C-alpha cells in the first residue's frame, strides 16, 4: 500500500464520518423544531365562588393547535349534535336551568399559543344556584379534543 492509497482511504473515512454527523444533526434539528412548536391543550374545570366557574381550555404548549375534531359524551352517551362546535355545546347547555356562557370552535380552527378561554362558564358562581352546572362538569360531561401541530403530529386532550 502506497501513501496515495492510505491518504485516499483516510479521506473517505473522514468524509463518511462527516456525512454521518451531518445526518444526525439534521435529524436532531428537525426533532427540536417539532418540539419547539408543539401545542399542548388542557381542559380544566374551576369553581371560584363569586368569580368565574366552568370549563377552561388553555394551550400551554409552544405552538398553535389545529382542531381536527372533538367529541362530547353526556352521561356516557355521545352528543350527536356535534363536538365543541356551536351545535354540540348548545345541545349540552340547552337543558340546564341556568344557561352558561359558551365559546365554541369548529373543526379546522387554529388555537393560538396563548389561548386561555372558558368553553362553558357562569359568573358569578354560586354553589347553590349553579349546582346543576357543577354536576354537569364534574360528573356528567366528557370532552375530547383532537388536534395537530403545523407539522401534522396528532394529539388528543386527556379526558
Could you explain the architecture of this structure?
Strands 3, 4, 6, 8 and 9 form a five-stranded antiparallel sheet that branches. A four-stranded antiparallel sheet has the order 1-2-7-5, with helices on one face. The longest helix is centred in the N-terminal third of the chain and has 34 residues, at 3-36. β8 (141-148) and β9 form a beta hairpin. It has three helices and nine strands; from the N terminus they run αββββαβββαββ. It has 159 residues and is of the alpha+beta class.
* Residue share in β-strands: 25-35%
Q: What is the CA-based Rg, rounded?
A: 25 Å
* Tally of alpha and pi helices: 3
**Averaged pLDDT:** 90
Span between termini: 68 Å
Instruction: Give the fraction of residues assigned to helices.
Output: 25-40%
Query: What pattern of helices and strands is seen along the backbone?
Result: HEEEEHEEEHEE
How many beta-strand runs?
A: 9
Largest sheet properties: 5 strands, antiparallel
Which stretches of 5+ consecutive residues score pLDDT under 50?
Answer: none
Structural class by sheet pairing and helices: alpha+beta
Please give the domain count.
Answer: 2
Using the alpha-carbon principal axes, give the shape.
Answer: rod-shaped
Amino acid at each position: 500500500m502506497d501513501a496515495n492509497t492510505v491518504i485516499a482511504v483516510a479521506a473517505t473515512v473522514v468524509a463518511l464520518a462527516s456525512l454521518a454527523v451531518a445526518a444526525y444533526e439534521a435529524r436532531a434539528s428537525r426533532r427540536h423544531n417539532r418540539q419547539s412548536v408543539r401545542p399542548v391543550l388542557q381542559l380544566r374545570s374551576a369553581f371560584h365562588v363569586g368569580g368565574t366557574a366552568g370549563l377552561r381550555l388553555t394551550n400551554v404548549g409552544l405552538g398553535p393547535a389545529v382542531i381536527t375534531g372533538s367529541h362530547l359524551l353526556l352521561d356516557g352517551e355521545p352528543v350527536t349534535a356535534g363536538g365543541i362546535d356551536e351545535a354540540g355545546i348548545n345541545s349540552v347547555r340547552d337543558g340546564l336551568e341556568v344557561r352558561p356562557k359558551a365559546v365554541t370552535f369548529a373543526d379546522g380552527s387554529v388555537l393560538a399559543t396563548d389561548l386561555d378561554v372558558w368553553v362553558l362558564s357562569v359568573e358569578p358562581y354560586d354553589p347553590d344556584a349553579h349546582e346543576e352546572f357543577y354536576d354537569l362538569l364534574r360528573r356528567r360531561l366528557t370532552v375530547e379534543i383532537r388536534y395537530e401541530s403545523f407539522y401534522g403530529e396528532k394529539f388528543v386532550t386527556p379526558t
